[in-house]
Design goal:
The chain has about 180 residues and is of the alpha/beta class. It is about 20% helix and about 35% strand. The structure holds inosinic acid and magnesium ion.
Length: about 180
């Protein structure tokens, strides 16, 4: 099997969009502190680029969720494989995710966070594939809407590969 990649979103466009998102996020929290929950591992690169551009006080923590075990197909269940350790009660929480596909993962996790009584809860995602949505998830800060293609790079993987690519690419697997 041969894997080929075509560039969907170049590095420069991602950089520019993240700066715009940081400005939007800074403005929307009215200078109040924000607690960022970065979803491992795919959102790490986005989250670390973003936090350095935010102007307010920032705390960050990590959660690892798994619902996507085997390459390109989603399995039904969401599991927390590494939970948040900071106290979220009364905090302005911003979840940072790589991509919203069916919405299953974020639907599950946002409901979990709501149970911890944050002051506010918002979602930032680099990518959104709205055509694939099965669960209602609202993205407050979105990088790019993309078509129903399997993408890699800038944190996103295929079988743990390609996360370090500085751009978003569409992966084609030739049989
Ligand atoms: P959802 O629960 O169906 O919304 O799936 C979300 C998770 O699936 C994301 O956090 C990604 O880890 C993974 N995922 C969905 N689409 C892609 C893709 O095109 N490339 C890589 N990972 C993806
Ligand atoms: Mg993910």
């Amino acid at each position: 099997m041969k894997e080929t990649i075509s560039v969907l979103i170049p590095e420069k466009d991602i950089e520019k969009r993240i700066s715009e998102l940081a400005t939007e996020i800074t403005a929307s929290f009215n200078n109040e502190p924000v607690t960022i929950i970065c979803v491992l591992k795919g959102a790490v690169i986005l989250a670390m680029d973003l936090v350095r551009k935010l102007k307010q006080e920032v705390q960050f923590d990590f959660v690892e969720l798994s619902s996507y075990y085997d390459g390109t197909s989603s399995s039904g269940q969401v599991k927390i494989t590494k939970d948040v350790t900071v106290d979220l009660e009364g905090k302005n929480v911003l979840i940072v995710e790589d991509i919203i596909d069916s919405g299953r993962t974020m639907n599950f996790f946002m409901n979990r966070v709501k149970e911890k009584n944050p002051k506010s809860l918002k979602l930032c995602s680099l990518l959104d594939k709205p055509e694939r949505r099965e669960f209602d998830v609202k993205v407050d800060f979105l990088g790019f809407e993309i078509p129903d293609e399997f993408v890699i790079g800038y944190g996103l993987d295929y079988a743990q590969k390609y996360r370090n690519l500085p751009y978003i690419g569409v992966l084609n697997i030739e049989q």
